[in-house]
Amino acid sequence: MYIDTHCHLNFGAFTEDWKEVADHCVKAGVEKMIVVGADLETSAKAVEIAQKHPALFAGVGVHPHHAPGEFDLKKLKLLAQNKKVVAIGECGLDYHVYKNTKYPNPAITPELKTQQKKIFGLQIQLAKELKLPLIIHNREAGEETLDVLNHFCKDDGQYPPGVFHCISGSKKLLQKILSLGFFIGVDANIVYSSEVQTLASDAPLDRILLETDAPYLGPGRDGARNTPKSVKIVARQISQLKNLPETEVIAQTAANAQKLFKC
Ligand SMILES: [Zn+2]
Ligand SMILES: [Zn+2]
């Protein structure tokens, strides 16, 4: 059994056919999919479709890209208490400048960084309170992402379990992530990214989760809509890199996902 631990069947690209896509993926062996929210609206949608489909589970959270938007902790907490919710996220830090954004100023100002850290911190605390794992998004902010985690967890020594999804960064950052007990999420960009290949090679198999970030990050790099079925490509790449049987990669990564998300 494959598990896609991070996809966005709740996003606009799947409005018309999320159910058909989910059914098709189940038939292809992707028996469970975690649908991840990026703001309150898409988090509510993730919960809604997870309730309608037995193979779907939900993550609820506010992505750092939406730091300038609404953040309502009460609403998020309410959503998080639904029984199909298996994680808080995606949340974290993102210092990449996106040109296509609905917010008026795409620049990463010091104020925006502070706001990102604030809402990330609130979600770390929520994960700890509700005893849910965290789905952490980090883009171009690795060390500071760890700083925020340390800030909110060092005092009581309690880091919530979680995953650094769509892994990127240096080998040194990877070692810090692993030493705090986190998993890493590997996507189909492993096909063409030597950085991801290096990180997936270095990480032990019992810390790796398969994911797709569908509709994004397809293996073809052509902008075509990605689907959760791409976890198969990710598993194959990892088995080749680590020189392990593909069946072992599939079974171990599914066990990892079930251990972390209890799905
Ligand atoms: Zn992300
Ligand atoms: Zn995502």
From TrEMBL:
Binding residue positions for a divalent metal cation 2: H137, H165
Record keyword S-adenosyl-L-methionine present: no
An example molecular function term from Gene Ontology annotations: hydrolase activity, acting on ester bonds
Range of residues in the leader sequence: none
Binding site for a divalent metal cation 1: H6, H8, E90, D213
Keyword line: Hydrolase, Metal-binding
Alphabetized NCBIfam families for the sequence: YchF/TatD family DNA exonuclease (TIGR00010)
Protein name (database record): Hydrolase TatD
Organism: Candidatus Beckwithbacteria bacterium CG23_combo_of_CG06-09_8_20_14_all_47_9
